[in-house]
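User: Please fill in residues for this 370-position structure.
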């Protein structure tokens, strides 16, 4: 029995795939049972307690450095360091929103508000709603918000439908992709404010209050210690690198992988595995990507604690091999090569298509399930 890939339903907080969407041929239930019996879905309070404490210590160190009488360039090095720390905070917020850390809903909400709205200036409610849709519809055209990026085209149809400046950017998107990553955070913060102002989050007043406190503390602390000029440079570098870091860890997950047509039919297991890409693990990669390099395992088991992904990978790989399901895993550099090549191939249609075909039929030749 197959489930519909694209739907408009949005699940409740925290992020988890609704049970009714797990209608499948029985293979996923078999895999989930194996993972569950191995104890890989059990909460890991000790692991996350250590992770949270260490992250807060790193944040405290970065803030303390700003209060020291250092040379100008050393402040900028601290901005680089704090961009890294901010990403670690973001990874914790991501894990909490998926229910990987806590069992109780209010604890998850409070933790996510602190690590999202208060510390990063990003709306927890907006991100959770967006991430819900992505998990239910990975790489699904018209339903996955991660494919709805105005400056990029992931299929030839998307490229042909763009006009004006957006068409020009899509035409050379393989070259613009890396610079665009530095603007990741700017776009997310704008969407956060928009979602809260339009009442699209569950607790708009609370979220707005946390964002205001974040802005007051962040801007006040930096400008008070560094002044207007140095403070502005610090903020630009910190925000740009933070966005670049986060964008670079998200991109390998699905970009350049199979896309699904709106209304396509496939079961949950195949939908999650075929649209995702793993980055081959080691100690450094696991830490740098916050566990998101195990994207296949994460999509199959969204509430699995991060430190269990490595063990789950062995179970999932063996299962996919035994059931002849393609399992994509590659190196860090190869993943980015595949992304850039995909963007280049998609944009090629704009280099050969006459302007009169701007709104014409799709010439998309990408791998799609129809």
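Assistant: Residues filled in for all 370 positions:
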């Amino acid at each position: 029995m197959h489930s519909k890939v694209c739907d408009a339903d949005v699940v409740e907080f925290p992020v988890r795939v609704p049970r009714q969407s797990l209608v499948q041929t029985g293979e996923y239930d078999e895999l989930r049972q194996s993972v569950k019996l191995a104890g890989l879905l059990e909460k890991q309070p000790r692991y996350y307690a250590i992770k949270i404490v260490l992250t807060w210590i790193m944040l405290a160190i970065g803030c303390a450095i700003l209060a020291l009488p250092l040379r100008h360039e050393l402040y900028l090095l601290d901005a680089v360091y704090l961009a890294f720390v901010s990403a670690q905070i973001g990874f914790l917020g991501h894990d909490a929103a998926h229910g990987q850390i806590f069992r109780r809903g209010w604890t998850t909400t409070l933790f996510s508000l602190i690590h999202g709205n208060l510390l990063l200036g990003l709306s927890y409610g907006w991100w959770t709603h967006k991430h819900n849709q992505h998990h239910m519809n990975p790489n699904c055209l018209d339903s996955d918000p991660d494919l709805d990026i105005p400056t990029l085209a992931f299929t030839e149809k998307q490229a042909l439908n763009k006009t004006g400046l957006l068409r020009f950017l899509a035409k050379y998107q393989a070259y613009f992709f890396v610079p665009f990553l530095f603007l990741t955070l700017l776009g997310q913060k704008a969407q956060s404010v928009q979602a809260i102002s339009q009442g699209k989050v569950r607790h708009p007043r609370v979220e707005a209050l946390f964002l205001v406190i974040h802005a007051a503390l962040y801007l006040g602390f930096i400008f008070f210690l560094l002044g207007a000029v140095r403070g502005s440079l610090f903020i630009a570098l910190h925000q740009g690198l933070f966005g670049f870091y986060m964008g670079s860890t998200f991109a390998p997950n699905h970009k350049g992988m199979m896309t699904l047509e709106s209304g396509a039919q496939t079961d949950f297991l195949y939908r999650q595995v075929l649209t995702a890409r793993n980055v081959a693990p080691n100690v450094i990669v696991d830490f740098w990507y916050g566990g998101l390099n195990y994207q296949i395992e994460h999509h199959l088991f969204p509430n699995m604690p991060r430190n269990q992904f490595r063990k789950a990978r062995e179970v999932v790989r063996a299962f996919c091999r035994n059931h002849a399901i393609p399992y994509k895993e590659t190196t860090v550099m190869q993943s980015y090569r595949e992304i850039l090549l995909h963007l280049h191939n998609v944009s090629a249609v704009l280099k050969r298509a006459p302007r009169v075909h701007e709104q014409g039929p799709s010439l998309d030749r990408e791998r799609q399930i129809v």
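For context: The first strand starts at residue 259 and ends at 260.
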